[in-house]
Design goal:
Helix content: 25-40%
Bound molecules: ligand ZZB
Oligomer: single chain
Strand content: 15-25%
Radius of gyration: 27 Å
Number of helices: 8
Length: 351
């Protein structure tokens, strides 16, 4: 592609960068000229050529040329080639997941970043948990509309085991318009912004915010979650939710996620904690972990067992929760067999 030939010529230049720098220090006055991308094209190739000659490389420089639109002949050739490939449906044009710079309106590769080198996109599955009656006071304006809390998960196959949804009481959640009419989503602001570049809002990069609501004011919201064993399930407080991960709305699978079991157990065991967040007993007490994955010699409630085994004291017991989570991830991944739903009897070994 055009960008491929560009990056090839750039890496060519890169490899001789250091040699060139040591031999040709540029002056302070010269530096601002590099703000013009075309200045680079004239500046580095002669230095690279000189260095290569000094290295003793035998290069036929009569065949050297610059790519990009700076060279209209080469550019026309590449365009011709790509138009043909596209007509033959050998290539297509579209979006892909990447780190993107809204400021520059284009993907931002590792070396182009002032911070965040080595960061890649993390794919999450969003679970649309429909808000159902009775609506909490702050959601009354959305009566009769389609409104969803969007939970981000790495384990969509475990949705049969959902018992509740987690929100952080102190995080401000954004209610914003979805790309589909009369539909609203609830997530942390950062997630809404990321979603606006992924066709989940009406206009690319634009969020249409309709309300900002503290997690505390959403506690006890009734939800209809896809594939869940229980209906409805309720929004409950989890103190360890990170605002900058996923959507900051988390679906709870206490059978297989130690964090979820520890937080649900806290609420079940502590009437004061339920009272603090205005939760009724029936929003918490009837919801027991649902077995969905069998692990030989470990049972079908891996997270419950791991929390016992590693003596997890509460949802704030980070050290033991990390150990429990590692164990459950590892055991579930290698030996777990689902015994419910579309992937019944499937293990990572038979996949
Ligand atoms: C359902 C589920 C079922 C999850 C399971 C895990 C497990 P990781 O691996 O540490 O990156 N999550 C998502 N967003 C947040 C957030 N903002 N703050 C705290 N937790 C969050 O964790 C990925 C998981 O962390 C996600 O997948 C989500 O919970 C939670 F059986 O969704 B999961 C052993 C884990 N099992």
């Amino acid at each position: 592609s055009l960008s491929l030939s560009l990056s090839l010529s750039l890496s060519f230049i890169h490899s001789f960068f250091f040699l060139s720098f040591s031999n040709y220090p540029h002056t302070e006055e010269e530096i601002p000229k590099f703000a013009d991308a075309e200045y680079w094209l004239g500046y580095f190739p002669p230095l690279a050529m000189k260095d290569m000659d000094r290295l003793g490389l035998k290069v036929d420089w009569r065949r050297a040329f610059v790519t990009t639109p700076v060279n209209p002949f080469y550019d026309a050739f590449v365009r011709w080639q790509f138009n043909h490939l596209r007509a033959k449906e050998k290539i297509k044009f579209g979006k892909r997941y990447t780190i993107y710079s809204p400021k520059d309106g284009q993907p931002c590769m590792d070396h182009d970043r002032s911070s965040g080198e080595g960061v890649g996109p993390q794919e999450y599955t969003l679970i649309k948990m429909r808000v159902v009656e009775p609506l909490p006071a702050k959601l009354q304006p959305f009566k009769g509309k389609n409104i969803f809390m969007l939970a981000a998960t790495l384990r969509p196959e475990t949705m049969y085991g959902q018992t509740n949804c987690w929100l952080h009481p102190d995080i401000s959640y954004l209610v914003f318009a979805a790309s589909t009419p009369d539909t609203f989503y609830i997530t942390a602001t950062r997630a809404a912004r990321n979603m606006s570049f992924q066709d989940l809002t009406a206009a690319n990069g634009e969020i249409n915010p309709v309300a900002t609501i503290k997690g505390a004011d959403l506690m006890g919201t009734a939800l209809d979650a896809p594939y869940a064993h229980y209906n409805p399930i309720y929004a409950l407080p989890m103190m360890t939710i990170k605002e900058d991960k996923g959507t900051a709305v988390v679906t709870s699978v206490p059978s297989d996620a130690p964090d979820d079991w520890a937080a649900l157990r806290d609420l079940k065991n502590k009437p004061d904690l339920r009272a603090k967040f205005g939760l009724k007993d029936e929003m918490v007490l009837p919801f027991d972990p649902v077995p969905i994955i069998e692990i030989p010699d470990y049972g079908n409630l891996a997270a419950v067992k791991a929390c016992d085994e590693f003596k997890v004291a509460s949802q704030n017991d980070r050290e033991n929760l990390v150990k429990a989570k590692d164990e459950v991830y590892r055991k579930g991944f290698y030996d777990g067999v689902m015994f419910i739903g579309k992937y019944k009897s499937v293990t990572s070994r038979t996949r």
